[in-house]
Amino acid sequence: MIGSRLLGQQPTFSGTDFDLPEIAFFGYYEFRDAVATTDSWDRHDGVEIVLVRSGEACWEAGDEGLAVVSGGHAVLFPAGRRHRIANGVYTPCRLLWLVFHARQEACQRARLFPRRDLEALFDLADRQAGPITLADSTRQVVTDLARALTDERLFIGSAPMMADVRSKIYSAVVGVWHSCTATEGAGPSELVRRAAALLRADALRDPDTDRDQRIDELAHQLGYGPSRLYSLFSREMGMSPNDYRQRVRIKMCCAALARGDESVTSIGMAHGFHSSQYFSRVFKKYVGVTPTEYRRLFGRSRRPPASPPAAGPPAAGP
Q: Which of 52, 6, 55, 53 has the alpha carbon at shortest distance from 32?
């Protein structure tokens, strides 16, 4: 039997099963509802590519970065880069992922991709920052590949289907590569990095500040108009400045819910949410579960539910 089933009906495959020795693992996951996973940092020896077919997922990357990836976009995690799913919960989404072996091993075992192309892909992943917008043709490849990976005939080793999967994986990776090349060097600019750092500091220092007023002040501090800052930040980070600040606040709330016994209402109030109803609504929008449900999953007295092995998507894999 080819592959394995995780989290119910989620297929995960070894690259060697498909005569793809340069790839360690790959798979397709579909989360109809929010799914909790272990809230621990992960890193892979090789490059990881995640392509989001629909919905939205948010990863923490490194010590400060947030990568929000919505349907029709992808993200590259370089070899050795720490990452995990934000707040330990996958919000509803459908995504494909694949992890290459370490650079030397992948190049020595290369079969689907020439060795020089793998070297270039590893180098590209080191330079790439932020979500990658996929071309329509690549989005269609992702859709077709998702269907193929959930076809029962694949699990009995249908040779034509396995050849079709190899072809689509090649097309998907090349499609991501083309999109990266078209925007190479378009990672967060110095301005946007400074803005993100100020937004994080602001959320920590004064979470109760009016958001629109603060963005205006921030733009003035950086020497830009609010609309210009908003446009640049949204394009480079994949989310608006207000959205980024809100995610930082929610992350702080998640930490407070997991580590202490303070009431949900008190935690919300301490982080600028003026009613429990509003706090619950915003929290569920970003995390996929309510604050009370999150505490039940991740509070000190409870261990988080089992998650897929580290070979899966970022942060213990979906």
A: 55
